[in-house]
Amino acid sequence: MAINIIADALSRLCRSGGYHLHLFYLDQIGMIWNIHPTFDLFTSSTTKVLPRYVTANIKDQQAQSKDAFFDTWMYEVLLVYLLIPILSRVISYLNNEVTLAIVIAPWWPVQPQFISLMNQSSRYLIL
Question: Taking the model in full, what pTM does it have?
Answer without folding.
Answer: 0.78
